[in-house]
Design brief:
This protein is α/β, with parallel strands linked by helices. Strands 3, 4, 5, 6, 7, 14 and 15 form a seven-stranded mixed sheet that branches. The protein has two domains: 145 residues, Medium-chain alcohol dehydrogenases, catalytic domain (Quinone Oxidoreductase, Chain A, domain 1), CATH 3.90.180; 135 residues, NAD(P)-binding Rossmann-like Domain (Rossmann fold, 3-Layer(aba) Sandwich).
Length: 321
């Protein structure tokens, strides 16, 4: 499924089946995750990186149906999920083998599509970039989102104190049930006051960008790390360098889709870290995919509308076939 050029409409198209190149596998897709990046791409605001498929979809689950040259870790018939640069809204997708993860035994194959993007985002940002440690206070903006619900579980399992912002009582209750220690109604309370009253945030995982930059820095503890992974609140803001220096704090900006497949800072390294950090927590049941809703591929418009509404708790998925 592609976005129609020059519009924000979606179109189902027929293309040739992909063949695995060297180091690649082909996955028969069972389900695909719906991400905000997909909404941006269909609006023309987030084009795929050079060489990536222009078909929407950044994560899938399914069964391996073909294996390319030099692939030894995977076999035809393996149940897997995978991180993509594009191409997930399809019956088949070719993907570098280093971006593939095994389906956890505790998770059904459809729900496994809810894992790759959020798990890789959380592992790479909280632990690789921000070096989050047990006992620290983590503030997650958008605690009921796909990334938020996953991050709460992982952080709680690793003895991190967790604070979240969420709009509705139902969302705040859900976050608390997942393990959040502090839940903040950002429509009624100033998260800066709440967090500073709790000692300050050691790490902030932020999806808002410019809108929250100044307040996020105020909420940081000495030595705190602000990790910006989204720009829902804009791309430009003023920053007090003095405030940052006084706190000996850091502001980090990261992205996942445009990383190279291999090498330093690559998707391969992110997937390796995710499998090492997160997969054991899933295998033991301490972390589970949170699925808000599923839609057939033909109803991708409705799936996008559900995500765009802001009412979803956890991931929205498309089922294929």
């Amino acid at each position: 499924m592609r976005a129609i050029a020059g519009t924000d409409q979606l179109s189902v198209v027929t293309v040739e089946d992909p063949e695995p190149g060297p180091g690649e596998v082909v996955i028969d897709v069972v389900a695909a995750g719906v991400n905000r990046a997909d909404l941006l791409q269909r609006q023309g605001n987030y084009p795929p990186p050079p060489g990536a498929s222009d078909i929407l979809g950044l994560e899938v689950s399914g069964l391996i149906s073909a294996v390319g040259h030099r692939v030894t870790a995977w076999s035809v018939g393996d149940e897997v999920c995978a991180l993509l640069a594009g191409g997930g809204y399809a019956e088949k997708v070719a993907v570098p083998a280093v971006q593939v993860l095994p389906k956890p035994p505790t998770v059904d194959l459809v729900s496994a599509a809810a894992l790759p993007e959020v798990a890789c985002t959380v592992a790479s940002n909280l632990f690789d970039a921000a070096h989050l440690q047990g006992g620290e206070l983590l503030l997650i903006h958008g605690g009921s989102s796909g990334i938020g619900t996953h991050a709460i579980q992982v952080a709680h399992a690793l003895d991190v104190r967790v604070a979240v912002t969420a709009r509705t009582q139902a969302k705040r209750d859900f976050c608390r049930d997942l393990g959040a220690d502090i839940v903040i109604d950002y429509t009624a309370d100033d998260f800066v006051d709440v967090i500073r009253g709790s000692g300050g945030a050691d790490v902030i995982l932020d999806i808002m960008g410019a809108k929250y930059l100044e307040r996020n820095v105020k909420a940081l503890n000495t030595g705190g790390r602000l990790v910006i992974i989204g720009m829902q609140g804009g791309v430009k803001a003023e920053l007090s360098i003095g405030a940052l220096m006084t706190k000996r704090a850091a502001v980090l900006g990261t992205t996942l889709r445009s990383r190279p497949v291999t090498g330093a800072g690559s998707k391969e390294k992110v997937v390796e870290a995710t499998r090492r950090i997160t997969w054991p927590l899933i295998d033991t049941g301490r972390v589970a995919p949170i699925v808000d809703s599923t839609f057939p591929l033909a109803d991708a418009e409705a799936a996008h509308a559900r995500l765009d509404s802001g009412d979803a708790i956890g991931k929205v998925l498309l089922t294929i076939g």
